[in-house]
């Protein structure tokens, strides 16, 4: 996984955390939910990239 993809996922995760905190402070349930959802999406993207990298590593180990 490239550095830029990792950075984008981390930024999205942090934005979701910020949105969730603002929702907590303002007692806005919708914003809180959107923030949690955004964090989950970023984590899922990160996990998908990790699986993709692991598959690539396995493939490379068999071709060497």
What does the model show?
The chain has helices at 3-26, 29-63. With 64 residues, it is mainly alpha-helical.
Distance between the termini: 20 Å
Order of helices and strands: HH
Spatial shape: elongated
| Secondary-structure class | mainly alpha
Please indicate the percent range of residues in DSSP E strands (runs of 2 or more): under 5%
Number of helices: 2
Helix content: over 70%
Low-pLDDT stretches: none
Count the E strands. Answer: 0
Largest sheet: none
**Oligomeric grouping of the chains:** single chain
Radius of gyration: 16 Å
The whole-number mean of residue pLDDT values reads 91
Domain CsbD-like: 5-55
Pfam family, one: CsbD
Organism: Micromonospora inaquosa
Region (Disordered): 1-64
Features:
64 residues, 2 helices, 92% helix, elongated, CsbD, YjbJ_sf
Topology:
Blueprint (H helix, E strand, L loop, with lengths): L2 H24 L2 H35 L1
Helix pairs in contact: 1-2
Give a concise summary.
Residues 5-55 form the CsbD-like domain. With 64 residues, the protein is an all-alpha fold.
């Amino acid at each position: 996984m490239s550095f830029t993809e990792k950075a984008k996922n981390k930024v999205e995760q942090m934005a979701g955390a910020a949105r969730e905190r603002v929702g907590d402070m303002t007692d806005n349930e919708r914003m809180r939910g959107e923030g949690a959802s955004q964090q989950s999406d970023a984590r899922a993207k990160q996990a998908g990239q990790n699986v993709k990298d692991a598959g690539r590593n396995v493939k490379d180990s068999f071709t060497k």
